[in-house]
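Module 6 notes. Inverse folding takes a fixed backbone as the condition and produces residue identities as the prediction. Think of it as a translation problem where the source language is geometry and the target language is the twenty amino acids. Below is one complete input and output pair. Work through it position by position during the lab.
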């Protein structure tokens, strides 16, 4: 691990704190901050058949992913990871330099509830050192661990759609594509609807990459899953005049995409370094914004590694 911030004087390696266990006393699952999401998904699925709706990034640490909110293929259906965060154990230092451990929960009468709230999507890392997370669905009842978190899908249906950056991908075609993507999500974001099962990422790479793609994922056993994907792809491509060069689908076991690269979930085969900025959108990008995206993705100074990603 490293940091480019010159003010950082100390880095703590929490990777050995990677337990994923059922805490009978609290009626929740305890997860160490050093556990990778891949390890969390595998353990929860293999032992209890449940999961958390986190991201498809198995090699990062839960300590950062959870504090950032935790969003992934099941989030439109079940919410973010922090919607299931019922408590944290945090090592804090007061104004006198005294170190102590605080357990903060989401219970309304917990005097430390604000500290729990501070770890529900604000970015994390500034309130102390988290040494334990406890996870339990907000509507969970009873003590059966197989009912304390959402049931994990058995299979995932994935669709990959790709377009070439050729003469057909005009500014009108490209901006229509992005606008369609945003407007579909504006229309289909109500909880409990069939469309809430669908998750999509539009990865708009720079023209120098030659092409760009969209990835669509859904629980394969949702009634009409394949039709929901077809309707979504049709809605996104409507009026563009640019037919996809790839439209491929496959069904795979749930653990395959969420634990790749698999062997230990320790890291990638390639060291990934990149700079990224993110924002949350309540509405589709407007005309001037879409034009700016197109302009920067088709200029002469961009690189194949640059681009814009829209997550649904």
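Target side of the pair, the amino acids:
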């Amino acid at each position: 691990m490293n940091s480019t911030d010159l003010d950082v004087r100390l880095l703590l390696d929490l990777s050995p704190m990677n337990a994923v266990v059922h805490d009978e006393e609290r009626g929740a699952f305890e997860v160490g901050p050093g556990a990778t999401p891949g390890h969390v998904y595998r353990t929860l699925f293999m032992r209890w058949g449940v999961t958390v709706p986190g991201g498809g990034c198995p090699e990062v640490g839960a300590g950062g992913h959870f504090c950032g909110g935790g969003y992934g293929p099941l989030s439109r259906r079940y919410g973010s990871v922090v919607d299931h965060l019922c408590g944290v154990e945090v090592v804090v230092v007061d104004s006198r330099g005294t170190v102590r451990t605080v357990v903060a929960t989401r219970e309304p009468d917990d005097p430390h509830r604000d500290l729990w709230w501070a770890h529900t999507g604000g970015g994390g890392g500034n309130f102390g050192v988290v040494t334990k997370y406890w996870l339990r669905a907000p509507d969970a009842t009873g003590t059966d661990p197989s009912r304390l978190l959402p049931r994990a899908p058995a299979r995932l249906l994935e669709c990959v759609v790709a377009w070439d950056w050729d003469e057909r991908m005009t500014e009108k075609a490209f901006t229509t594509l992005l606008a369609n993507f945003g407007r579909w999500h504006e229309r289909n974001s109500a909880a409990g609807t069939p469309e809430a099962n669908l998750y999509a990422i539009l990865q708009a790479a720079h023209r120098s990459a030659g092409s760009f793609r969209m990835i669509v994922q859904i629980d394969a056993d949702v009634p009409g899953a394949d039709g929901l994907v077809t309707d979504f792809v049709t809605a996104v491509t409507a009026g563009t005049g640019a037919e996809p060069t790839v439209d491929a689908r496959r069904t795979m076991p749930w653990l395959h995409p969420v634990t790749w690269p698999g062997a230990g979930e320790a890291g990638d085969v390639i060291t990934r370094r990149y700079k990224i900025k993110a924002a949350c959108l309540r509405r589709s990008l407007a005309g001037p914004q879409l034009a700016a995206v197109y302009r920067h993705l088709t200029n002469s100074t961009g690189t194949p590694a640059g681009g814009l990603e829209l997550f649904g």
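Reference fact for the lab report: The first strand starts at residue 20 and ends at 23.
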